[in-house]
């Protein structure tokens, strides 16, 4: 690597999970804070990215929102060997280092090895090789004034280690990412959850991809237990939701936690969750409503729509109507006080209604962030729903099983549609997803049973005298 000329280069160090979500989250944060970043290396599945930023405050802002990133350091040196790293550090102007080496500043050096393990003695030995740095303060391992990071990258194959690390880096810690929020908002300690509540990490990632900021109005049309609203409210947005499930919104469903499954819910609701995280002043309300028949005025304008539609697997997907059919259509009784939700809500129709709602109510520049279930054998990115007024910003995958995954799609509204466009918009993706899922699962189950039977026959034949 070339010698560093300025202090405007940084290294982002990521957690080793949800790798496919990193770039979409970081790009959204850069856009949110209007930060101009220049990638020194193309972002990749590696645990680190190198970036050039205008100033340290920009690095702090990125860390203040990212949950995929562990920390960000000001990069003082980077090389392919320890010898070259030392040479690079020694060539730096001393005046740029001295401000962090003063006698009143305590410090520590932390060694991070990716793809390899090292003993404490080996780490101390490496730290001692930096004794030429003019550090005058006291060593303090807990909460020091300045933390320096030595990072060794040994590659992505722990079973095929090289003789030495591929890259070594040294720099000053600027800020930690928001990984602590994952624990703070964890479902394990949340008062009200359901069977399909979104975990805190993915909820926060979705809020980041939606570029949620204080004062925004964020809506979830399939709100369930409100996990996505919790993340949005935590970032300062006013939150609103709807769901067709009356019992869920009123906290009257069966307990989801095994330990309390035999006990009725008491004081459990989305509002109680908001109170738990001190976000109740940003909670607008939730209403019982059918996403196929939204009750909202056309004048409603939303900054973001964040949702996870029911796939019909773990939770039923239904819409209002009667099972009676006339002229090939479900009959909706007139003048009824209550119309039950008995009609299956096909996923493609659900997706179509969500897009029409987004085209109508999202502001220009607002974002729709939603999940799409995928059968790996059927997935074709060219078949994803598209509209000229909604730009697909990112498409991130979370693997669920050997034959399924789900994709987090982020769309940004770039212009207002013509009146005729909304009504004419159709979606074919995801048609009969539930039936395809179970049919494929049964096929795999049958194949596995046949394989077990064949293997048993082979074992028996070999064991015969």
Automatic annotation (TrEMBL):
Keywords: Cytoplasm, Methyltransferase, RNA-binding, S-adenosyl-L-methionine, Transferase, tRNA processing, tRNA-binding. One of its GO terms (molecular function) is tRNA binding. GO terms for cellular component: cytoplasm; tRNA methyltransferase complex. Residues 9-179 form the tRNA (guanine(10)-N(2))-methyltransferase TRMT11 N-terminal domain. The keyword Magnesium does not apply. GO terms for biological process: methylation; tRNA processing. Residues 189-316 form the Ribosomal RNA large subunit methyltransferase K/L-like methyltransferase domain. InterPro entries: RlmKL-like_Mtase, SAM-dependent_MTases_sf, TRMT11, TRMT11_N. Belongs to the class I-like SAM-binding methyltransferase superfamily. TRM11 methyltransferase family. This is tRNA (guanine(10)-N2)-methyltransferase homolog.
């Amino acid at each position: 690597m070339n010698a560093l000329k300025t202090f405007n280069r940084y290294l982002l160090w990521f957690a080793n999970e949800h790798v496919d979500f990193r770039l979409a989250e970081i790009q959204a944060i850069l856009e949110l804070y209007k930060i101009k970043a220049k990638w020194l290396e193309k972002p990749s599945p590696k645990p680190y990215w190198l970036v050039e930023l205008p100033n340290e405050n920009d690095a702090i802002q990125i860390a203040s929102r990212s949950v995929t990133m562990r920390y960000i350091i000001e990069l003082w040196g980077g090389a392919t060997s320890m010898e070259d790293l030392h040479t690079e550090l020694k060539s730096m102007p001393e005046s740029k280092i001295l401000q962090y080496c003063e006698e009143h500043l305590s410090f520590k050096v932390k060694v991070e090895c990716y793809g390899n393990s090292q003993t404490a003695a080996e780490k101390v030995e490496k730290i001692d090789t930096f004794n030429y740095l003019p550090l005058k303060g006291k060593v303090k391992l807990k909460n020091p004034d300045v933390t320096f990071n030595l990072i060794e990258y040994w590659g992505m194959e722990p079973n095929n280690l090289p003789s030495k690390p591929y890259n070594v880096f040294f720099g000053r810690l600027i800020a930690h990412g928001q990984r602590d929020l994952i624990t703070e908002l964890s479902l394990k300690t949340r008062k009200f959850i359901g069977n399909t509540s979104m975990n805190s990490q993915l909820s926060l990632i979705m809020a980041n991809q939606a570029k949620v900021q204080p004062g925004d109005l964020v809506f979830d049309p399939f709100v369930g237990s409100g996990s996505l609203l919790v993340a949005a409210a935590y970032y300062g947005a006013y939150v609103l939701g709807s769901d067709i499930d009356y019992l869920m919104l009123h906290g009257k469903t069966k307990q989801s936690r095994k330990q309390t499954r035999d006990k009725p819910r008491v004081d459990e609701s989305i509002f109680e969750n908001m109170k738990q995280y001190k976000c109740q002043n940003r909670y607008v309300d939730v209403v019982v409503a059918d996403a196929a028949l939204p009750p909202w005025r056309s004048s409603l304008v939303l900054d973001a729509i964040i949702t996870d539609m029911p796939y019909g697997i773990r939770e039923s997907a239904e819409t209002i109507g009667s099972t009676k059919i006339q002229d090939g259509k479900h009959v909706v009784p007139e003048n009824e006080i209550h119309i039950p939700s008995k009609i299956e809500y096909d996923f493609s129709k659900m997706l179509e209604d969500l897009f029409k709602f987004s085209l109508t109510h999202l502001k220009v520049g607002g974002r729709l962030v939603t999940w799409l279930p995928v059968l790996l054998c059927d997935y074709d990115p060219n078949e994803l729903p598209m509209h000229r007024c909604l730009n697909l910003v990112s498409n991130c995958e979370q693997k669920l099983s050997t034959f399924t995954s789900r994709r987090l799609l982020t769309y940004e509204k770039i212009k207002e549609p013509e009146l005729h466009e909304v009504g004419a918009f159709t979606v074919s993706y995801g048609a009969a997803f539930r039936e395809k899922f179970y049919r494929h699962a049964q096929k795999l189950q049958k194949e596995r049973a046949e394989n077990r039977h064949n293997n048993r026959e082979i074992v028996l034949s070999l064991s015969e005298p």
